[in-house]
Design goal:
The chain has 798 residues and is an alpha+beta fold. It contains 19 helices and 38 strands. Helix 5 (158-169) packs antiparallel against helix 17 (718-726) and helix 14 packs parallel to helix 15. It binds guanosine-5'-triphosphate (GTP).
């Protein structure tokens, strides 16, 4: 089953030059709660596949994918890293290791946008954690395999975690393997040695000092594991049979009702079918740190996760016919020469300059060819193309359908940002002209949503002479990470840097000072408050002598959504959940387009002015506006000879400012970030922690559960609870929970919604209330109106 490892490959890229076979390609991500073991597992995958010749460790700061200095010194993943490698010589995997910390959630969002499948890693002791539930939801619609990691830890619970998967994540489980224990640890607990392979009916045991030394033994009738295997296989076949009629037929007719007679190939086909249909999730286990279970996980990736041929299709701005060609991948609009790709990540490399990560959805991108950015309307020439192996690059001539690679070169970097759609011709260098202007050049993949920033800090240069460098450095940072935002207050001259959390801003500051050498001072990190509208502005119109005509209304997003219809073109303004709505023109259509500027250029000008105007117009405390829509009425006109969009920008910006002027203060509300918080404490600490949460922190408590008790969970679903109770699960023999009966040390998990402002420095308080034993996690839930009793004190402080 396991390929023998190729001799030390150094970081050679020769694996990569394998023949292009789209059905043997997997674009996958590793997602999980913080510290579940994503990077450790990735590192082992690279080693056992022969990609690297030594295993890096997170704790020693020498892993391949965590290559940023901040990642190595802090032992956490900050940015998602893409790496390509082969498995079973036939398959090519493009893998993205994503960060687990909630502050870097945008990295997860943008990686998921271009991935076809995921491995969800769970910590076998902690089970399904708050962030696991969050990334699971973020990856909705993407087929996922679960890997229950850290099976070597005291208190690990394979079956308990599988049960939590069912109840909390509402999925059926397919136990592809189960843990095997031999001997005892120094602590007296059973020693995790390997896995029982339910599909292939084998036991795999690892020599932990040499991950490639795997002993494989058949499980024969009468051997100690036979009974367990029979129960697990029966359960697996039964679950598959509820969905897969073909398997039922085989089971009854050919296998004569014997669960053990179903060939492993047929089982794998059935598991894949169930996963791709969203019916169930394959579950495996291991201990990556001890090198156990990684090869079966890679086998599962290639056996069960989809190739680009079977993957879900991205959402476009309008419907186009898509056909799947087994050899070349997707063909859009019946045009074999059309290439469509999306940029999902930008990084600045000290040697190579700006590098833009793209995923190709149809056709191929070729170096030196012309390309069109259908998001911005800019035409440019492709520079060099490379494929990344963490921070090492391999130059290639062509990126084909389903592949993930990097665009380089100054024309590309000037013209492409995160989320943009790139259109090109497959074979003709200057083939853009032969593409259909309406159906093909106008095609846009829906952009990547940026979560709203919740913390900000004032930032200024230490000396005035450094202002320009500071601005350039911040621009470079934001280009890489659009979840960082900058806003300038013209009145006070203050510049605010905003981000997803305190750690996010701390890392940004670190990078500004140490990587970009910007001599800046960063002030206290504060929660970002916003304002929103509760009524529409009046219609504001302008008609100039030169032939411009614009009519604009700004309205609450809720109102706009309630009346949304097909004659409106919606554009996310990226920040603060604001949108630009352009009503279909009364004067122009795609077939009657006399203007020199393109529709995309016109819309981009409107979007830029809307972003600037909405950043300032909060009336109560000048906070930026949130959840608002700028609507451009259908009577808009632009002079035919307009070559630049600068005038559209100026006019629309002043119109939005004018529109706001007529509103009274009562048309605005203040919004604040609300966090979804879960606090795990010992039973004896619960009273004081709860009191502090509901009193000082204004928490709205949603549930209080025993850790790992699923019945009263807020999201418990009766169907999945029942399925979980019926599911065969082997006994958890590392479940070192004898102390549960004493009651005194049972962990309680308190879940609630809490204003972010009240959670600042919560760690210190929790430590003092629980003698350092309590832990907590929180992630952004949404913006809500500030309650009246807290409004005055907030306004005073800000
Ligand atoms: N005992 C044990 N520890 C493990 C295992 N896998 C990972 N760890 C440890 O868990 C910690 C976190 O591992 P990482 O691989 O950094 O986890 P991660 O999910 O990538 O973390 P972030 O990317 O920062 O969210 C490190 O100290 C690892 O050594 C395992 O199988 N067993």
């Amino acid at each position: 089953m396991f390929r023998s490892r190729k001799p030390a490959l150094d970081f050679a890229m020769r694996f990569f030059s394998s023949k292009y076979d789209i059905s043997a390609q997997r674009d996958i991500g590793i997602i999980a709660h913080i510290d579940a073991g994503k990077t450790t597992t990735t590192e082992r995958m690279l080693y056992v596949s022969g990609k690297t010749k030594r295993i890096g460790n997170v704790d020693e700061g020498d892993t391949i994918t965590d290559f940023l200095p901040q990642e190595r010194s802090r032992g956490i993943t900050i940015q998602s890293a893409a790496i390509s490698f082969n498995w079973q010589s036939k398959y090519k995997l493009n893998l993205i290791d994503t960060p687990g910390h909630a502050d870097f959630t945008f990295e997860v969002i943008r990686a998921l946008k271009v991935l076809d499948g995921c491995v969800t890693i769970l910590d076998a002791v902690a089970g399904v954690e708050a962030q696991t539930e969050k990334v699971w939801k973020q990856a909705k619609g993407i087929p996922k395999i679960c890997f229950i990691n850290k099976m070597d830890r005291s208190g690990a619970g394979f079956s308990r975690t599988a049960k939590e998967l069912m109840v909390k994540l509402k999925t059926r489980v397919l136990l592809v393997n189960a843990p095997v224990f031999d001997g005892v640890e120094a602590s007296g607990e059973p020693m995790f040695k390997g896995v029982l392979d339910v599909v292939n009916q084998k036991i795999l045991r690892w020599d932990t000092s040499d991950p490639e030394n795997v002993s494989v033994s058949e499980i024969i009738e009468g051997s100690p594991y036979w009974g367990e295997l029979v129960k697990l296989r029966e359960s697996l076949v039964e679950t598959l049979s509820e969905f897969d009629e073909h398997l039922v037929e085989y089971f009854l007719d050919t296998a004569e009702g014997d669960y053990m007679k179903i060939p492993s190939d047929l089982m794998n086909v059935s598991i894949r079918k169930c996963l791709l249909a969203g019916y169930a999730t394959p579950v495996l286990c291991g201990a990556s740190f001890r090198n156990i279970g990684v090869q079966p996980l890679l086998d599962a990736v290639v056996n069960y996760l989809p190739s680009p041929l079977e993957a879900r299709w991205p959402e476009f701005n309008y419907e186009v016919p898509v056909a799947i060609d087994r050899k070349n991948g997707a063909i859009i609009n019946k045009n074999k020469n059309l290439c469509v790709a999306q940029a999902f990540k930008v990084i600045t490399d000290p040697i190579r300059g700006i590098m833009i990560y793209v995923r190709v959805y149809a056709g191929s991108l070729n170096s030196g060819f012309s390309a069109y950015n259908s998001t911005t309307g800019a035409k440019f020439k492709m520079g060099k193309l490379v494929v990344m192996h963490a921070n090492l690059a391999e130059e290639i001539k062509q990126l084909r359908c389903g592949e993930i690679g990097v665009l380089t070169g100054s024309t590309v970097s000037e013209n492409v940002r995160t989320g943009d759609t790139i259109i090109a011709h497959n074979v003709k260098k200057d083939g853009l002209r032969s593409l259909d202007k309406v159906k093909e050049l106008g095609l846009r993949i829906n952009p990547i949503d940026t979560p709203p920033p919740v913390f900000s800090a004032a930032i200024e240069p230490r000396t005035l002479g450094n202002k320009k460098l500071m601005e350039e450095s911040i621009a470079a940072l934001i280009r890489e990470d659009p979840s960082l935002h900058i806003s300038a207050d013209e009145e006070t001259g203050q510049t605010l840097l905003s981000g997803m959390g305190q750690l996010h801003l701390e890392i940004a500051k670190d990078r500004l000072l140490n990587e970009l050498n910007a001599d800046v001072e960063v002030g206290k990190v504060m929660v970002s408050f916003k304002e929103t509208l509760n009524s529409c502005t009046a219609l504001k119109q302008i008609e100039t002598e030169t032939g411009y005509r614009l009519s604009i209304v700004v309205e609450p997003l809720e109102d706009a959504e309630a009346t949304k219809n097909a004659s409106e073109d919606w554009h996310s303004l990226s920040t603060d959940n604001n949108f630009l709505i352009v009503e279909k023109s009364a004067t122009y259509s795609a077939s009657n387009w006399p203007l020199q500027i393109s529709y995309e250029q016109f819309v981009n000008a409107l979007a830029s002015s809307s972003i600037v105007a909405l950043q300032k117009n909060g009336r109560i405390a000048n906070f930026p506006l949130h959840s608002c829509a700028v609507r451009v009425k259908r009577d808009w006109e632009v002079p035919t000879d307009t070559a630049s969009v600068a005038q559209v920008l100026t006019l629309s910006r002043s119109l939005i400012f004018e529109a706001f002027k007529e509103l009274s203060d009562s048309s605005f509300d203040i919004l604040e970030p609300i966090m979804n918080v879960s606090v795990a404490v010992k039973q004896e600490d619960m009273g004081s922690v709860l009191q502090d949460l509901t009193g000082a922190r204004k928490a709205n408590i949603l549930s209080i559960d025993d850790e790992h008790t699923l019945d009263s969970s807020q999201d418990a679903d009766i169907t999945f609870q029942k399925l979980a109770d019926e599911q065969y699960l082997p006994a958890d023999n590392t479940l070192n929970r004898a102390n549960i009966s004493t009651g005194a040390t049972v962990n309680k998990v308190i879940r609630g919604m809490v204003p972010l402002k009240e959670m600042v420095s919560y760690m210190n308080k929790l430590r003092s209330l629980t003698q350092g034993r309590g832990t907590y996690h929180m992630f952004y839930h949404g913006m809500e109106k500030v309650s009246n009793d807290r409004l005055a004190s907030i306004l005073e402080e800000y």
